Amino acid sequence: MTKITYVTPNGERIETEGENGSTVMETAIMNGVPGIVAECGGACTCATCHVYVDDAWRETVGGPSNMEEDMLDFAFEVRDNSRLSCQIKVRDELDGLVVHVPTRQG
């Protein structure tokens, strides 16, 4: 299992374990992380699973695809480290990943 920490807007840290092959969004939903709405269920057709990847993890996680970039246009307060958590696959290399949940979703 891969450890993923979600930091809520108020600074609460929610530590979880994600199954490799699932997504960061699925892990958030399974663990009741507040602020990850995931209206489309992971189809990359909304921006309600928006997260900010911690700077220490940006290179390992990688950047968004063109389709994901298009959907991020619908997210609030997009930053250089914005990603849709439905598009980040859990894998061994992400053990210890930290993502920050924005104050609101698209």
UniProtKB/TrEMBL annotation:
Q: Which UniProt keywords apply?
A: 2Fe-2S, Iron, Iron-sulfur, Metal-binding
Q: Which cofactor does it need?
A: [2Fe-2S] cluster
Example GO molecular function: electron transfer activity
Against InterPro entries, the record matches this protein to: 2Fe-2S_ferredoxin-like_sf, 2Fe-2S_ferredoxin-type, Adrenodoxin-like, Adrenodoxin_Fe-S_BS, Beta-grasp_dom_sf
Q: Name one GO biological process term.
A: P450-containing electron transport chain
Checking Gene3D superfamilies in the record gives: 3.10.20.30
Q: Which residues form the 2Fe-2S ferredoxin-type domain?
A: 2-105
Q: Which PROSITE patterns match?
A: 2FE2S_FER_2, ADX
Tell me its family: Belongs to the adrenodoxin/putidaredoxin family.
What is the name attached to this protein's record?
(2Fe-2S)-binding protein
- Kindly list the organism's lineage: Bacteria, Pseudomonadati, Pseudomonadota, Alphaproteobacteria, Hyphomicrobiales
